[in-house]
Hints:
Layout: E1 8-9, E2 12-13, H1 20-31, H2 35-47, E3 54-59, H3 63-74, E4 78-83, H4 91-99, E5 105-106, H5 113-124, E6 130-133, H6 137-144, H7 147-150, E7 155-158, H8 161-172, E8 180-182, H9 187-210, E9 218-222, H10 226-237, E10 241-245, H11 249-257, E11 261-262, H12 265-271, E12 274-277, H13 287-290, E13 297-301, H14 311-317, E14 320-325, E15 328-332, E16 338-342, H15 348-351, H16 358-378, E17 386-388, H17 391-404, H18 414-421
Parallel strand pairs: 2-5, 3-4, 3-6, 4-5, 6-7, 7-8, 8-17, 9-10, 9-12, 10-11, 12-13, 13-16
Antiparallel strand pairs: 1-2, 14-15, 15-16
Helix pairs in contact: 1-3, 1-4, 2-3, 2-16, 3-16, 5-6, 9-10, 9-16, 16-17
The protein binds adenine.
Amino acid sequence: MTPDTAVMNAQGHVADPKLAESGVNRIEWAEREMPVLRQVKARFAKDKPLQGRRLAACLHVTTETANLMLTLQAGGAEVTLCASNPLSTQDDVAAALAYRYKIPTFAIKGEDADTYYKHIHAVLDARPEFTMDDGADLVTVLHTKRAADAAGVIAGTEETTTGVIRLRSMARDGALRYPILAVNDAKTKHLFDNRYGTGQSTLDGILRATNRLIAGSKFVVLGYGWCGRGVATRARGLGAHVLVTEIDPLPALEAVMDGFEVVPAAEAARVGDFFVTVTGNINVLRMEHFKVMKDGAIVANSGHFNVELDLETLRHEAKSIRTVRPFVEEVTLEGGKRMYVLGEGRLINLAAAEGHPASVMDMSFANQALGIEYLLSHSKELKPTVYPIPKALDEEIARLKLEALHVGIDTLTPEQSAYLASWEQGT
Length: 427
Ligand code: ADE
């Protein structure tokens, strides 16, 4: 529901402007853990590579995103921001961005679907030349409802696996109107943000929502991509017996060799205490699974969209539903069995916790900022398709992060370089 402190104007649409001060403090706290982005910001402030460029961003409105917005602003960009999920907004951050940093921000935690899309239209009203998306809702609205405005867009970036999949399918269908840089595919993004970020923040969300003990529990992770690996590893670290489900033989085999029990979802459903979907697919847990779950089973999603759990059918078949704690819905089925659905099935790490910690978002968002700079200088040679982040840029971000962490690495000796370049030398 939209709170009555929320006023929609040129500064944006936020829950309560009075929250701005708390937002500023928390944004500064995150900035301390974002050394790579800080360096980019310092250079941007000096060189102004984005001077006068209009950029619309649709991202989770968090302290880390705020630091990215401030970096783009320092580079001279005119930025407008909306939420990429109705439940992930940090209201104090949105207030700080709109009212202290003068970045029009349209985001209210708990906004309904109608408001969510109004906010997307609001950032598109700024006639962006660049889009920055997390999940591809902004690009989709632009291509379907505002196709005439798409002509004015030079290029865009996409943050997440789900969005990249959507955009690749748009490109395949010939529907994509401008080039997109897949930030998600940078190694300095998915190997850290998806794995260590999702791993920690998903457990954080489940713990904050439930305060349940993980040790000794049966913890089911559905999907063993980079996010699934992170969640499974952290759940094991807290003492859970972790079961993994997969549809792809390769990650399934990796999960086996990583020491996890791999079983079909139908089997896991009978034994699990906790369930987390991280597949990017639809209806991964459905009525046939809910029906056989134990009384008290806890079900959450940490994939981008809330479609991974078939909550529509669950709600339809429920005898009763009530909220028992913030972000915890008790669903009672025929026969009296209770299940607990966390955060309305939306990404639990952002709904009940604060998303990934700043230290990993540092690299993801350095990719975003440098990605926009790259797109601006290469726009003439790029076609309307999905591009990877250039390897040199990815490696530079890794190098800067290591430097900030005071970690030294070795360089090849001339002899080693020559050896690697040669083929004559064997045993
Ligand atoms: N996605 C996951 N965690 C995030 C965060 N802290 N900020 C922005 N996007 C995120």
